[in-house]
Sequence to fold (231 residues):
Amino acid sequence: MSFGSGKLDVSFAQEILEDEKHKDVVSGLLDGSVNWYAEAAKPLKDELRVALRQASEERCVYCRRIPVVDPRTNASEHVEHFLDKSKEKYKRFIVSPFNLSISCNSCNIQKKTKDMLLADIDENSIPPTQCGQYHWLHPCYDDYFENIQIDKGWVYSIKHQAPAAAAAKNLIDECRLIVISEIEERKNAEVDSVFDEVLECMLNWKDDPNSTAEKVSSIMGRAREEVWKNI
Fold:
C-alpha cells in the first residue's frame, strides 16, 4: 500500500493558475480584491482541489491517511496553504503552487495558523526550497518518508538520521498523530472481539448449523450497529 510520494509535485498547478478563465480571480486573490472564500473563487479552488488530490494520491500531506470526502461540501479535506494565507507577510503566496496541498480536516485544525517558516524573509524574497527550513515537514521540499516511518496501526516515528528530524517531531507532536494509533487500537480491539464471538459460534456449526447461522447473523448485525460507538 502506498502512502503517496515523499515529496508533492505541484508543477501542474501553474497551468491551472495561468488558464485564461481563472485570470481575473487569480489577480483578485493576489491584490486582495477577491476573498479566498468568495463564490467567484470556487471554480479555481475546485479545479486545484481535484488536481492536488490526484497528485497526493488522495492522501493528507500531514498524516497520510485518506480523508472521507463529502462531495457536497468537501468538508473533510482542505486546499491547504502551508504558509498561512491569513498572515499579511504570506498573502502574496496565496496561489503559489509550492504553498498548496491537500490536508484532512483534523490536521488542518491542528495546524491552525502556525507560522511554518523558521526564518523571516523580506517582501522581495521567496521562501527557501531546501530541506529542514520549516517548522513542519514541507510537502514539496522535505521528503516525508526520509523523515517519518509509518508502521502498521498508524504508528508514527522519526527515522534514524532523518534530515529534518526537528520538523518531523514537530509534525508528529503538534498534529497529534499519536492519537491516530490510539483510535486504531480501539478499532482493532473491537474487531477482534467480534471475530472471537463469531469463531466461538462456528465451533458449533456441525451440531446446529441453523442456530449457529442465526447467532452469527445477530453478532454481525450488532457489530454494525454498535461497534462504531466505541471507535
